Please model this.
Amino acid sequence: MSGKRRRGDPGPAELLLATSIGRRFYVQGASKLEIAEEFGISRFKVARILDQARDSGLIRVEFDVPAPLEPTLSDEVASAYGLRRALVLERADRTEIELRKRLGAMAADLLTELITEDDVLGLVWARTVNAMTDSLRGLARCPVVQLCGVSSRIDTREHSADRSVETVRRVAAVSGGEAFPVFGPLVLPDHRTAQTLRQQPGIAEAFERFAKITTAVVSIGAWRSGQSTVYSVLGQQQREELARKGAVAEVAARLFDADGNELVGEPGHHVLAASVADLKRIPEVIALGGGAGKADAIAAVLRSGMVDTLVTDAGAAERLLAQA
Amino acid sequence: MSGKRRRGDPGPAELLLATSIGRRFYVQGASKLEIAEEFGISRFKVARILDQARDSGLIRVEFDVPAPLEPTLSDEVASAYGLRRALVLERADRTEIELRKRLGAMAADLLTELITEDDVLGLVWARTVNAMTDSLRGLARCPVVQLCGVSSRIDTREHSADRSVETVRRVAAVSGGEAFPVFGPLVLPDHRTAQTLRQQPGIAEAFERFAKITTAVVSIGAWRSGQSTVYSVLGQQQREELARKGAVAEVAARLFDADGNELVGEPGHHVLAASVADLKRIPEVIALGGGAGKADAIAAVLRSGMVDTLVTDAGAAERLLAQA
DNA sequence: CCGTTTTCCGCTCATATGAGCAACTTAGCA
DNA sequence: TGCTAAGTTGCTCATATGAGCGGAAAACGG
Model:
């Protein structure tokens, strides 16, 4: 039947002693000295029993996170890429739209928690950030600055896309703070137009505030159709040329290669947006991006060192770890 | 959707910080000072985060006992009745025979663990103890003493019942130690016969060793048909008379009332068995008994203060706690 | 706006704790 | 039997830890 007991395999008395002590220590929070006296053994023995019980798996610690987060993956991604924190959503096979919604909701909760009255919030114009707006219910009173112009060619199947520049306004409304929107297109035909637009009163006001931003929310785009705000507004020729030059990711209309280096001085890619230097200056940059297909783009952006907090999903997180 | 965040309800960043710290501390065993330095916070904050995470249920400690035991019930029963330990088998609705088999197997494991070469083992003759023999695979070399005579009227549907006095012999064989069986009936017609039998060479040898026994295994019987070795060999009149006098439990042919007091000097109840005083002198008495219907009998015996270790099942344990 | 209450945080100091060590026991083997 | 190797136990001492305190900041009420 049960076979002969193997050496080192503890009997029921030892097992129950270990669970009793474990309960006293881990659940009820008693001190080891106290437990030692109760059980009539030395405190060293208590310590050894506890260590062994933990190492052997008899005592297991579980985390009941009251949010759809994967704490283990979050830890691993954050430490693998040197981030301040990572928020990895639980796996849930769903459409891109649903995923964006969930990422947005999580980012909204995070923002509500992090932002104080002393902060200045910067927002990129992107679908996931717009989705965040929908879930945002409370925010400390603070200025809200738009970090880049808007793209009109974006997929409009989603309700939030209709509101275009209203994102910043809406966040400011929830917050009660001042809004600094950028009324202008994200990608411009030439450098001169970009310069002219930047001198427009409203836009200039926003750009002046980039240096004061304490927390920014950006979206990570992949250099593929439907995966980037910029990609969608360029011509096929430009898309291919940039891809040849190594573009795999996009944040605030800035492109990155797989190593996280910015692709600078691209011809025909003049944008109305904060520079990478502007973004790197911001103490807390929250980047949103999920889906297994976006993992390479996310990895590239993380390697740029720009991101402090990543909000992603389990599918992308696992791919990130695989290539870390 | 998600509603406004309530006060005191932590955001995702705080949640992940708490799980990260919890993993570092509880799983990886890092010190709080170490964690504080890693996260750039004071060690007091680490302690407070951990306390709060534990109290709020974010961090949950589980016990994976590699045996069919209920550690919580075991703890509770042991502390409610002042036992050294209790082994409560997991609930598993089964027949009495199966239950006895499982109790016996658990007792066998316990005995294997507890007995050393310096011990002297005492065994009662009862079905559960016989069942233990079947599962006993290893035992330190030690003398094995039979604590009472045998009953021939016991239910013989079980294989182990056939072996009658062979139980002690078999245990001694597994152990490699000397056997001291009691070849004689448990219940005798009168005092004189009992005295005569006790002077028989083999029986006297066993009785002389009662005082040296360090560990005994006894079975708890209820004063009902089929629930006690003694009950089965008495006539209906005697059974009823003893029940009127308060008998609810039986151990080694000694009867107890609900308060754990022995029913002494019963007419027509002369037995070939260790006395209650003999049993109370033994440093480690392991009592076996299970099934919800036996709970009252078990409680009675525990109240006698005779038992150090109880081996029972969840059904009985819960009833024991209800009346503790 | 000011005063009060509440909450949060990090300090001091007495206590609890763990690493490492040495004495001891047990197991294995010739 | 005697020997060595492996394991177990409790001690010392430097370090880690928690209770309780007080000061600072936030929240509240007038």
The two ends of chain B are 48 Å apart (CA to CA). Residues 1-8 of chain B have pLDDT under 50 and may be disordered. Chain B touches chain A through 54 residues (CB under 8 Å). Residues 117 and 222 of chain B are 33 Å apart (CA to CA).
